[in-house]
């Protein structure tokens, strides 16, 4: 192949021997053409030889082709180059699709493993074999979703209720009745900035395994 490149150089009557390719704005299109041609030749080389390491003389061949030499005897014809590139694209697509299938299979296996670990851990917690807090700490370190925790929470919410009454005791009674009515009707309104947390306690109820799916 090197001899073919030298032969092309010797046959170049438009460019003096030893002259380097033109650089600068005027050479932008030829340089771009040469770069694209080299990429095409490299893809064809990889498709036929099964190697990602293209020979260094492909760059010179691309420059010669871009300079207007046309197809060379030692290089594929336009039809053959198209065929090789088509094969290369098909192989690349097949490789990409296989990689996606493999990644999906790995993700599915990981999800099944994680779900199995969570369900086993939940059963152990329900049987009081291990504690919930320690189990969740271990699951978090393994990158597995922790088990749900139920809390009983006490909140202190200041509520102002305006009522008409004959005395203070009667006013409190009426206010309590009004508050119950608002709680059941869902019309209770309060300032969330005045809400105070009085305490929270972890529930002793078993973890519902159906909630883990």
Give an overview of the whole structure.
57% of the residues lie in helices and 6% in strands. It has 213 residues and is mainly α. The protein has two domains: 28-151, no CATH class; 154-195, no CATH class. The protein has a two-stranded antiparallel sheet. The radius of gyration is 39 Å and the shape is elongated.
Q: Which series of helices and strands comes N to C?
A: HHHHHEHE
Strand order of the largest sheet: 1-2
- Largest sheet data: 2 strands, antiparallel
Mean pLDDT: 75
Provide the number of structural domains: 2
- Please tell me how large the radius of gyration is: 39 Å
Tell me the fraction of residues in β-strands, as a range.
5-15%
Region (Disordered): 1-27
Biased composition (Basic and acidic residues): 10-22
Which features does this protein show?
213 residues; 2 strands; 2 domains; single chain; disordered N terminus; 6 helices; two-stranded antiparallel sheet; mainly alpha
Short description:
With 213 residues, this protein is mainly α.
Write the layout of secondary structure elements.
Blueprint: H1 2-11, H2 28-49, H3 58-69, H4 78-126, H5 132-141, E1 151-156, H6 168-185, E2 196-202
Antiparallel strand pairs: 1-2
Helix pairs in contact: 2-3, 2-4
Biased composition (Basic and acidic residues): 10-22
Region (Disordered): 1-27
């Amino acid at each position: 192949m090197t001899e073919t490149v030298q032969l092309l150089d010797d046959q170049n009557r438009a460019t003096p021997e030893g002259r380097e390719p033109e650089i600068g704005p005027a050479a932008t299109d030829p340089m771009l053409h040469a770069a694209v041609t080299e990429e095409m030749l490299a893809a064809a080389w990889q498709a036929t030889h099964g190697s990602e390491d293209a020979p260094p003389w492909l760059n010179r061949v691309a420059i010669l082709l871009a300079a207007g030499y046309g197809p060379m005897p030692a290089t594929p014809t336009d039809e053959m180059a198209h065929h090789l590139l088509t094969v290369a694209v098909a192989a690349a697509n097949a490789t990409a699709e296989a990689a996606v299938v493999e990644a999906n299979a790995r993700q599915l296996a990981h999800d099944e493993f994680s779900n199995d670990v969570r369900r086993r851990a939940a059963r152990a917690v329900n049987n009081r074999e291990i504690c919930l807090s320690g189990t969740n700490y271990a699951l978090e370190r393994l990158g597995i979703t922790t088990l749900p925790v139920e809390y009983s929470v006490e909140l202190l919410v200041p509520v102002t209720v305006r009522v008409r009454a004959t005395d203070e005791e009667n006013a409190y009674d009426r206010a309590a009745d009004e508050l119950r009515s608002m709680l059941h009707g869902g019309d209770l309104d309060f300032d969330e900035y005045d809400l105070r947390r009085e305490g929270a306690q972890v529930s002793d109820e078993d973890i519902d395994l159906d909630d883990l799916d």
